[in-house]
From TrEMBL:
Its main location: other. Residues 4-88 form the BMC domain. Keywords: Bacterial microcompartment. Pfam families: BMC. The keyword Transmembrane helix does not apply. Belongs to the bacterial microcompartments protein family. It comes from Lysinibacillus pakistanensis. This is BMC domain-containing protein.
Length: 95
């Protein structure tokens, strides 16, 4: 079964670390990557089964919005191989 992918974008590194931690504790997901751009924009990419991704994105989005640091979030359910490959390549880039 193809896994689903979730992405949460926030303002600020500290809140993104808290969000990643909460998502990992709240749902059976795997952290693919946490990409930081000048400490102001942080993107968290996760992978897991569809329900776990939905739960994790809900957790992350609520936390980011509560802190007024939410930019965007999305869920890609069972992505096509090309999209999955793209995300996996991004996840392999060194930080």
């Amino acid at each position: 079964m193809t896994k689903s992918i979730g992405i949460v974008e926030t303002r600020g590194l500290a809140i993104s670390i808290q969000i990643a931690d909460a998502m990992l504790k709240g749902a059976a997901i795997r952290l693919l990557r946490q990409e930081t751009i000048d400490l102001a924009l942080v993107t968290i990419a996760i992978e897991g089964d569809t329900e776990a991704i939905r739960e994790a994105i809900e957790i992350g989005t609520k936390m980011a919005k509560a802190a007024n640091q939410w930019i965007a979030s999305t869920t890609i359910l069972r992505p096509e191989d090309a999209v999955n490959g793209l995300v996996m390549e991004i996840a392999k880039k060194p930080t």
